[in-house]
């Protein structure tokens, strides 16, 4: 997310985490939360060390500038992240599981440093006057019978996929209001186009940044039939659903919010949440009406540690 590159777990590792089930997911969540708690517990110690260093070396001297640039003020910045999410087991599901994963991002120090937690992974190739464009990618979790064995009995799996495409973003009010659109296409065969539109209004309170804004998502016919279609075989094997072939169009509408708190230039944390309402043919799908729910919620927590990379 943001103006950089990001590496998550490999798709196969990510898919395995996604299919561990509620019990395994809770164990992963507990381990990651414990790791985050340990990291957060070190913050007071880090602050004490910083204060001590400032007391000994931080006083301005004659002929020495009062403000000395840090490694985070220029060059490239790497950010290590640990994220835990509570989200639906599959798009349209009414059951939820925890998902925990580490990641690392890389961005220029002079690039924008705020992005929404639900942005795709992007990199700006043009950035001027508040307008930026570039490539973007997102990992699509897919849908597996193991995610919800009872509800999805007999329903075909939708394999995980990488969705690649482009994004455009505009800040009509710098650091306060932005509009963004992503258009992506799944790399795997049979996947279609999906477009996500977002707007965010930011409020800054010292080290905290609050963001809130609407979300819209659309999919073409191939995308909608892959995610929400029901084949005759699915219907016969499951018994609770009837065949369904959705058309392309609006998929969901909702809202997203987040609070980012910067403990220091190095440490920050993000709490985010969102709600999407499946609409049109997505909501009419028997997978949603009979087996799932059109109301989709998500909650997440991310802890970040940033450091400068010299020599790049």
Architecture blueprint of SSEs:
Blueprint: E1 4-7, H1 11-18, H2 21-41, H3 43-57, E2 76-88, E3 96-108, E4 121-122, E5 126-128, E6 131-140, E7 161-173, E8 177-186, E9 193-205, E10 208-219, H4 221-228, H5 232-238, E11 249-262, E12 267-278, H6 280-284, H7 286-289, E13 295-309
Antiparallel strand pairs: 1-3, 2-3, 2-13, 4-6, 5-6, 6-7, 7-8, 8-9, 9-10, 10-11, 11-12, 12-13
Key attributes of the depicted protein:
13 strands; single chain; 312 residues; 22% helix; alpha+beta; 13-stranded antiparallel beta sheet; elongated; Outer membrane phospholipase (ompla), Chain C
Short description:
This protein has one domain (4-47, 76-309): Outer membrane phospholipase (ompla), Chain C (Beta Barrel), CATH 2.40.230.
Q: Please tell me how large the radius of gyration is.
A: 22 Å
Largest pleated sheet: 13 strands, antiparallel
- The tally of domains stands at 1
- Tell me the series of helices and strands, N- to C-terminal: EHHHEEEEEEEEEHHEEHHE
Shape: elongated
Report helical residue fraction: 10-25%
- Strand element count: 13
* CATH hierarchy class name: Mainly Beta
Low-pLDDT segments, ≥5 res: 1-65
């Amino acid at each position: 997310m943001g103006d950089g590159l990001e590496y998550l777990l490999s798709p196969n590792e990510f898919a395995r985490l996604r299919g561990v089930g509620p019990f395994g997911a809770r164990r992963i969540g507990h381990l990651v939360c414990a790791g985050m708690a340990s990291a957060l517990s070190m913050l007071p110690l880090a602050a004490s060390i910083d204060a001590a260093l400032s007391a000994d070396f931080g006083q301005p001297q004659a002929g020495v500038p009062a403000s000395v640039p840090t490694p985070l003020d220029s060059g490239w910045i790497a950010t290590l992240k640990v994220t835990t999410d509570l989200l639906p087991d599959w798009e349209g599901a009414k059951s939820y599981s925890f998902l925990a994963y580490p990641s690392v991002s890389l961005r220029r120090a002079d690039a924008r440093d705020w992005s929404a937690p639900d942005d795709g992974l992007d990199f700006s190739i043009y950035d001027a006057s508040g307008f930026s464009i570039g490539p973007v990618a997102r990992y699509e979790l897919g849908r597996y019978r193991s995610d919800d064995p009872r509800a999805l009995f007999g329903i075909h799996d939708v394999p995980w996929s990488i969705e690649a495409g482009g994004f455009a973003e505009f800040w009509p009010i710098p650091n306060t209001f932005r509009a963004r659109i992503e258009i992506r296409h799944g790399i795997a065969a049979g996947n279609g186009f999906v477009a996500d539109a977002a707007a965010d209004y930011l409020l800054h309170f010292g080290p905290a940044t609050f963001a809130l804004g609407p979300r819209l998502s659309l999919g073409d016919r191939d995308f909608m039939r892959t995610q929400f279609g029901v084949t005759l075989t699915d219907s016969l094997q499951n018994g609770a659903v009837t065949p369904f072939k959705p058309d392309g169009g609006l998929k969901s509408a909702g809202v997203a919010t987040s609070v980012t708190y910067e403990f220091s230039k190095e440490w920050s944390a993000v709490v985010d949440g969102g709600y999407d309402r499946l609409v049109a043919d997505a909501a009419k799908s028997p997978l949603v009406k009979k087996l799932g729910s059109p109301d989709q919620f998500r909650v997440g927590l991310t802890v970040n540690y940033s450091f400068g990379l010299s020599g790049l």
